[in-house]
Amino acid sequence: MCFLFTDLIAKIAMIRIGRLAPIVIMLIFSGALVTNMELYDIVAVVLFCILGLTMKHLDWPRPPMLLGYILGPLIEKFYFSSQMIFGYRWMLRPGVIVILILTALCLYVGVRVQRKETEVQEAMEAES
Q1: Which pLDDT score is estimated for 55?
Q2: pLDDT digits (tens, 9 = 90+) for 58-74
């Protein structure tokens, strides 16, 4: 059943932004207003728009902020639950250790790649 409309939904990506943006903006503001029927919701949407535009202007990634905003309360809730049940022993569980090692490895590789790119870029600038 879910595959029935995938072609139709995928065609939305082909619509020009000039035609799609006004509809999306209207839906965003309407959804914010209908939720609680308060003006503060519209103010929150405008503030998040300004934040997003500022982040885009400064070339800061927006998806991590969005993920943190959405997943932050869940992570906090389950962290405190684990802390109450296991104490600090939850950090010695095999799944947690694997996730911590993978996180450290990803950070290490990311920093290393970024340093390498910076060195290559500086070398190219020095040559020209």
Answers
A1: 94
A2: 999 999 988 998 999 99
What residue ranges do the domains of the chain occupy? 93-128
Angle at Cα 77 formed by Cα 84 and Cα 79, nearest 5°?
Answer: 50
What is d(CA 38, CA 97) in angstroms, rounded to the nearest whole number? 45
pLDDT of 94 over the 80 cut: yes
Residue 1 has pLDDT above 70, yes or no: no
Q: Which pair of tokens denotes residue 78?
A: 């389950």
Q: Is the Cβ–Cβ distance between 82 and 90 less than 8 Å?
A: yes
Handedness of CA 17, 18, 23, 25 (dihedral sign): positive
Tokens standing for 125? 């600038």
CA–CA gap between residue 36 and residue 115 (Å, rounded): 48
